[in-house]
Structure formats: structure tokens, C-alpha cells
Amino acid sequence: MEIVSIQHNRLAFKVSQQIIELIKTGEYKPGERLPSERELAEKMGVSRGPLREALSALQSANIITTKTGAGTFVNEVIPTKKNAFKALASTLSDQSPIDILEVREPIEVKAVALAAENRTEQDIKNMLKALEKQKLLLSLGKDPKDADMEFHLAIAKATNNTVLEKTMELIFSLMDQDFWEAMMENLSDKIYKDEKAIKEYIWIHEEILSAIVNRNKEKAQLLMKLHLNDQIEKL
């Protein structure tokens, strides 16, 4: 049952981001009525369950409005990208930290494989910059959480897959919620204040980057899975 739930949430994330992209590109214009649920479900290649969850989240984020008997319309004033993600994330804020990490795993394991295939020299520089920032913060005894997010988002950008990148942005928006902050305090005590744990933390990130640089997608996937599973175990 848990696997079905995770898959369902992941599909809803993807569908919501696909609809946002279609609005952004002008396929669905402000004030325009969206296609029926049946048509949208067929277009997105999903069942109506995840679609309805995505539409509900988008409505809560003030991106669309459903009018009884008339249909669902794109709002005339669309929130900024940052605020849209924040609002959308807030509708999903009842998800536990473990739920988020479990959703991250299949997405990021796929992401590192795509990053290994598609990364550019600039992508490598972005990942390296975030990694060096993590090392500096750790050496100063500070929490590298923001730099860690930058590293993982740089991987998502390197995939050259816009939907995956936006999905990761949404997931990290969820991680700005209060429950995640509380969880990170517990995780920080287990990772960032123990010399051995710090070395392991740096090592896994260096190895992930190395695998991406060398286009070794199998190794990158194995390392990312190991990294995220380790975080779940430490909660």
C-alpha cells in the first residue's frame, strides 16, 4: 500500500508541473478553460486520481479556479514562479519527512542517470561550487543544508529535463516547511557534529559528482540510492 501511495504522490507532482509548463508556454492562457478531466488525463497519460490531486493543489496555489457547472479556468493573474511553488508546496505540507525522502529516491536516482548522460561543463561547475560550499560550511561547524539543496538542484538541472527539474524544486519547497526544519535539527546532530559522519557525508557527495563527471550512470544511481536511504535510516 505504501508503494502505491508514493507512486500516486509522484504522479500528482509531475502532472501539476506539466500543467504549469503548459500555462507558461501559452498552450493554456489566462482566463481560458482547461480541457475536461478525461481529456487532461489522456493528455498526461495518467488516471483521474493523480490528475484530480494535481488540480486541487493548483487551485489551492491560486493558479487555476474551478467553477461549478462551467469548468476549470486558468487564473487571470498567475503567482510568480517562486510563490507558486511555495503555495503548491503548502497544500502538501502534511507529508512527513520520510514521505518526502521516499518520493525523492526514485526521482533523484533517475536524475543522476540523466545528469551523467546530459551534463555540460557548466553543470559540473555548478555542482562543484555547491559541493565546495558544503565543505566550507562544515569546516566552520555550520549546517550545509542550503548548499546541499543547491547540489541536488544542480543535478536536477543537469538532466536537461524541465519537468524533473521543476518537480525537484517543488519537493525542496516542501522541505522549507516547519516539520522539515525540526527533522533537520535531529539529522544535523547525527551527521554534522560527528567527524566520521562528516567524512562520509563529504565522500558520498564527491563520489556522486565523480560518477556524473565520468558519465557512469549506474554508479551514480547506486550512490544516490545509498545516500538517501542513509538519511531515512538516521531519522
Give the ordered list of helices and strands. Answer: HHHEEHHHHHHHH
The class by helix and strand makeup works out as: mainly alpha
Low-confidence stretches: 1-6
Radius of gyration: 19 Å
Strand fraction: under 5%
CATH topology description of the largest domain? Four Helix Bundle (Hemerythrin (Met), subunit A)
Query: Outline, from the CA principal axes?
Result: elongated
Largest sheet: 2 strands, antiparallel
Number of strands: 2
CATH class of the largest domain: Mainly Alpha
What is the percent of helical residues?
over 70%
- Average pLDDT figure: 82
- The named CATH superfamily of the largest domain: GntR ligand-binding domain-like
Describe the structure in your own words.
GO terms for molecular function: DNA binding; DNA-binding transcription factor activity. Residues 9-77 form the HTH gntR-type domain. This is GntR family transcriptional regulator. The protein has two domains: 8-74, Winged helix-like DNA-binding domain superfamily/Winged helix DNA-binding domain (Arc Repressor Mutant, subunit A); 92-234, GntR ligand-binding domain-like (Four Helix Bundle (Hemerythrin (Met), subunit A)), CATH 1.20.120. The chain is 74% helix and 3% strand. The two termini are 22 Å apart. The model is unreliable at 1-6 (pLDDT under 50). It is elongated and about 60 Å long. The protein has a two-stranded antiparallel sheet with strand order 1-2. Helix 6 packs antiparallel against helix 10 (195-213) and helix 10 packs antiparallel against helix 11 (217-234). With 235 residues, it is mainly α.
